[in-house]
Amino acid sequence: MSDFDKIPVAILGATGTVGQRFVQQLANHPWFIVVALCGSDRSTGKSYAEACDWRLDGDIPEYAAEMVIRPLSPDVPARIVFSALPFEAARMIEPLFAEAGHAVCTNASAFRQVENVPLLIPEVNADHLALIDNQRDQYGWAGCIVASPNCTTTGVAMPLKALDAAFGLRTVVSVSMQAISGAGYPGISSMDIHDNVLPYIRGEEEKLEPETRLLLGIMDGRERIPHSLALSAHCNRVPVIDGHTSCVSVRLDSSPSPEEAAKVLADFRGCEIVRGLPSAPERPIVVRTEEDRPQPRLDRNAEGGMAVSIGRVRECNVFDLRFVSLVHNTMRGAASGSILNAELLVRAGRLN
Ligand code: NAP
User: Fold this and answer.
1) What is the pLDDT of residues 11-39, one digit of tens each?
2) Which of 7, 140, 142, 204 has the maximal Cβ count within 10 Å?
3) How many angstroms is it from 261 CA to the middle of ligand 1?
């Protein structure tokens, strides 16, 4: 596809940790072309290179460096808008873009648990896109809001979906070790995180539990019925740059052997409609068999940062099974996950 035929997209909060990932991952995207980078009053009017403290490997992509940051106003010439805004700004601004006809693919938590907003991991619950019809009926929007889950939720919900479909899921206990980049830039002070573990991340456990129930929920007509599973989450911040690790124990309706469960996880391909999309990984879940994997440094970039890596699938002395899960928080857990959501919107004919 020539650039001329590509779908124009914009990035809100383009200078931040997730915004930079969007800028990086959308360079040379086969379907999308970035036509606008938007930021706060602090950045508006500056070139992207000037406004942004670039923190990713390599240089700022050539297309973006000299683009002038626009205000967060819905008159951008884009059909899809990727949002990497903080909660409060997202809450105020995203509906204005949806009202103006844009498909807003957001990473912010502002609308994730709102009844008519699809909370999406395309391989897990692509059918929840039907909620967009409710948004349009209720608010009269020409556009829509589609949310990506919390980054830790993504790494836990993907394997849980595979296990639920095969064995029925009842109870989950999950303990995270979350990377520093999950707190944005400049984020946590080095004095706080170096040589340390922070056993509290504000609001995180409150997101993981209900978001997982929504993601694993089913559609009944145009109504989303959350999964009834019981989930207890502990969330911790650790001195890792990128990649959230979670140790997960599950109680199931049946009691598969670890080998059976590992095979189900490795064979998981997810919803049919996602296959072959430009950002869809061949294997959404990569199962490691080494006794000491997955590790953030070694495994966060599996399948271009789009796979959840699972290891140490073994029996649990209290529940049925336990395993370790790893997700790249700014790739699959944020920007690249949202780009996949947008590709799904295109394939499903959901763009205005
Ligand atoms: P960040 O590094 O702090 O970046 C925040 C961005 O928002 C900056 O580009 C900043 O733009 C802009 N911004 C800040 N205050 C603003 C305001 N009052 N009005 C408008 N724009 C404002 O944060 P982040 O880690 O990228 O997170 C962005 C969103 O993604 C958050 O909602 C977060 O919860 C979510 N998320 C983050 C991760 C992750 O791993 N980091 C994963 C999943 C979801 P200027 O430079 O122009 O001021």
Assistant:
1) 999 999 999 999 999 999 999 999 999 99
2) 204
3) 37
